[in-house]
Design goal:
This protein has 131 residues and is mainly alpha-helical. 80% of the residues lie in helices and 0% in strands. It is built from 6 helices and no strands. Helix 1 packs across helix 6. The relative contact order is 0.15.
Length: 131
């Protein structure tokens, strides 16, 4: 059951990774076919950039090791029983923790996520030819 919980929880961020890859490949195809400079092609390139950005943000955010998020479930599956029990006890407060991190002073969450977001965005944008 622990392994299955990890697999199910990792499926969400994994799906975001697959969708970001799809958008990058689609942009590569547009550039390769020479359609990126047309009016509609330019709009599609913007849609590809938005698709990459949105899916990378969701992937990285969902991997936070806070219980209501997928990363918290993956962590609970990887930890020994005592650690998993601790995460289970704070799960009812997980949403409040996330809200405080998102909207709290100093934008704590964005300072934590920014290096990961930058890494994945740079990778996908460079691969797609959007940099």
């Amino acid at each position: 059951p622990k392994r299955d919980m990890i697999v199910v929880a990792a499926a969400g961020p994994g799906a975001n990774l697959v969708m970001a890859t799809f958008w990058a490949l689609f942009a590569m195809g547009l550039f390769g076919a020479g359609l990126a400079s047309s009016g509609f092609g330019g709009w599609l390139i913007l849609a590809c950039a938005a698709g990459i950005s949105f899916n990378v943000l969701l992937m990285v955010f969902n991997l936070l090791p806070i219980p209501p998020l997928d990363g918290g479930r993956v962590l609970a599956g990887l930890l020994p029983k005592a650690g998993a029990d601790f995460l289970a006890r704070i799960e009812p407060f997980g949403f409040i923790i996330v809200l405080v991190l998102v909207f709290g002073p100093g934008q704590i969450l964005w300072n934590i996520l920014e290096p990961f977001l930058r890494f994945f965005l740079d990778f996908f944008f460079a691969a797609a030819g959007l940099r």
